[in-house]
Specification:
Blueprint: H1 11-14, E1 18-21, E2 36-39, H2 43-47, E3 55-59, E4 64-73, E5 79-90, E6 96-98, E7 116-117, E8 123-126, E9 130-139, E10 147-148, E11 151-157, E12 160-170, E13 178-186, E14 193-200, E15 209-216, E16 219-224, E17 238-244, E18 252-262, E19 266-276, H3 281-310
Parallel strand pairs: 3-12
Antiparallel strand pairs: 1-9, 2-4, 4-9, 5-6, 5-8, 5-11, 7-9, 10-12, 11-12, 13-14, 14-17, 15-16, 15-18, 18-19
Length: 336
């Protein structure tokens, strides 16, 4: 577990880097930086096997949080690595990304990447076959709102980079909320998918769980049960996703109901209607015949309705009522 403290004096720690001997040199692949970056193992992590996949830091606004990063160099040459903090965000398809150093938002109260400090350890030289442990601090502004502030520690060298996630939460009230928008069907038959947009309206990260219900002209259609998506939807982010729908009909008018939930009580529902039709000339011909048949059926029903109103049920002619001769000026061709 990370060390959570509020002591501001960390100059001596930030200047320290513990260097330990490692295993024999290992050549790096051409597309790898030749070194690794990961959270340093703490006491709690050591009991669970010594590995932390990410940093987890939590504290109140106005405090200073501390942790350590391990840089390992198994190669036979020295590496120089630069460290910085960065804001994390969702790409349009839901993947996680970090903002470049030049693209940091100006509002430091919410831009968690600006809260990181590595002191003298911002640039680290790692000798061959050694490991460096670099302490860093996260200073949470007093004006920072409560909730999750996704971030990352980014280590770079000569165009190569390694990102280590930081789950950072500021203490206070939390809200799990989302909306579902722009539901539509794309594709046909077993290859059809339901496209939609998810927006995180709360202040905590969400793991969405969508479920799909579908109804056709003649009754319910196969949908999809709830499943957990491999997506972490960050606060304030908008992503465009697709849900496979192998039960889509080849030809029907469908009404979809997409419900998305997430741990913490978040729930949202959106509906949409769409025609599912096969492609090609045959489909267009079928639609034309369907439209023609619908027109003919409508005309037949209209004629039957008129005859029903005009003729009594027993088939007898209606009784003749008193008639009044029309005046001469009403005769065809006559003028007043």
């Amino acid at each position: 577990m990370p060390v959570l403290r509020t002591r501001p004096r960390l100059g001596a720690l930030l200047l320290a880097a513990a260097v330990l001997h490692m295993a024999p040199a290992v050549p790096a692949a051409a597309d790898e930086p030749g070194w690794t970056a990961e959270p340093a193992a703490g006491e709690a992590a050591a009991r669970a096997g010594g590995v932390r996949p990410y940093f987890y830091l939590a504290g109140t606004a106005g405090t200073v949080l501390e942790d350590r990063l391990t840089l390992a160099n198994p190669t036979d040459r020295e590496h120089t690595v630069t460290l910085r903090g960065a804001d994390a965000y969702n790409t349009a398809d839901g993947a996680l990304a970090v903002r470049p150093a030049a693209g940091r938002p100006t509002d430091t109260a919410t831009a968690a990447g600006a809260w990181f400090s590595f002191g003298a350890g911002a640039t680290v030289k790692i000798p061959p076959r050694t490991r460096a442990v670099v302490p860093f601090t996260v200073t949470v502004p007093a004006s920072s709102p409560p909730g999750d502030h996704p971030a990352a520690v980014v280590a770079t060298e000569a165009g190569h980079g390694v990102r280590v996630r930081v789950h950072l939460r500021v203490s206070g009230p939390t809200l799990a909320a989302l909306t579902v928008e722009d539901v539509a069907v794309r594709g046909r038959g077993p290859a059809a998918v339901v496209a939609y947009t998810l927006v995180n309206r709360g202040n905590v990260a969400l793991t969405p769980q969508p479920s799909l219900r579908a109804d056709g002209l003649f009754g319910p259609l196969p949908g999809r049960g709830a499943r957990t998506l491999p997506v972490e939807l960050l606060p304030g982010q908008r992503v465009e996703l697709t849900e496979p729908w192998p039960g889509a009909p080849a030809f029907d008018k469908v009404r979809l109901r997409l419900t998305v939930t997430a741990p913490g009580g978040a729930r949202a529902t959106a509906t949409a209607s769409a025609w599912c039709v096969p492609g090609g000339t045959t489909a267009r011909t079928g639609l034309g015949l369907l439209g023609l048949g619908g027109t003919a059926l409508g005309a037949l029903l209209l004629v039957r309705s008129r005859r029903t109103r005009r003729d009594p049920p027993d088939g007898t002619a209606p009784p003749a009522g008193p008639t009044t001769p029309a005046p001469e000026h009403e005769l065809t061709g006559a003028s007043r």
